[in-house]
Amino acid sequence: MQTTTVDIVTDDGVADACLTRPDGDGPFPAVLLFQDAFGPRPRLVEMAERIAARGYLVLMPHLFHRAGRAPLFDLSRLGEADQRGAILEKIMPLVGALTADVISRDTAAYLDFLAARDDVRPGPVAITGYCMGGTNALRAIEAHPDRIAAAASFHGGRIVTEAPDSPHLGVGSITGEVYFGHADEDQSMTPAQIATLEKALNAAGVRYRSEVYEGAHHGYTMSDTAAYDEQATERHWVALFDLLDRTLPTR
């Protein structure tokens, strides 16, 4: 397989992105991969390549592209628990700027980019996201239900808030299937918030699975951070590939 950097024209300028393409001629079904708060980096490329190895073309856009091309921050000490907070302090304003409208417009550009490629199979794509990327993956399928067949959110935070545009309030538009792999004891997605999300999904008749990964911390899939949990990460791969195999099979 091959991973390259591509540029995608959006309403607000050019977004840099990583494109991972399987070997062969295709066309391939496509998967969007939405980053966590720390942005595109080797760990996420490694994850994209694992998805591509199953026959998917994977596009990982830089969600913070308005602030410049990746990498925006020095992540050399990301694996040190005491440094994570300092890095996040710099990143959080960028996270907050990703409103529902911004995600909707950017996702449309990413989908158009994929649809224009000869090596991408026509039809809906799937999306998986991590941390804030999981939250924004939910926003993406809500905004483009006809173009996204499935969405997975792993250790997604702030999916349920008091804001009038809280992501859980938009689930009624979803026509595909969604999966949530929640981190245990996650302050950004508490048991009460999980219950509120599931109530909204049930009321809307959405096909979904919502599971709590016991003992796993927020960020459990990221092997370059102190939150990494190997067992939870392997469970996440099983869940993700089960979702992809059913909703966007490669053959």
CATH class: Alpha Beta
SSE order, as H and E?
Answer: EEEHEHHEHEEHEH
CATH fold-type name: Rossmann fold
Count every beta strand, where a strand is a DSSP E run of 2 or more residues. Answer: 8
Domain count: 1
CATH superfamily: Alpha/Beta hydrolase fold, catalytic domain
Please give the count of helices: 6
Distance, first to last CA:
18 Å
Residue runs with pLDDT of under 50 for 5 or more positions = none
How much helical structure, as a percent, in the residues? Answer: 25-40%
**What does the largest sheet look like?**
8 strands, mixed
Overall residue-averaged pLDDT value: 96
> Overall 3D geometry?
globular
- Strand content of the residues, in percent? 15-25%
Over the alpha carbons, how many angstroms does the gyration radius reach? 17 Å
Largest beta sheet: strand ordering? 1-2-4-3-5-6-7-8
- The CATH architecture category equals 3-Layer(aba) Sandwich
The structural class is: alpha/beta
Strand and helix map with partners:
Layout: E1 2-10, E2 13-21, E3 30-34, H1 42-52, E4 57-61, H2 81-96, H3 100-115, E5 125-130, H4 132-143, E6 148-154, E7 177-183, H5 191-204, E8 207-213, H6 230-247
Parallel strand pairs: 3-4, 3-5, 5-6, 6-7, 7-8
Antiparallel strand pairs: 1-2, 2-4
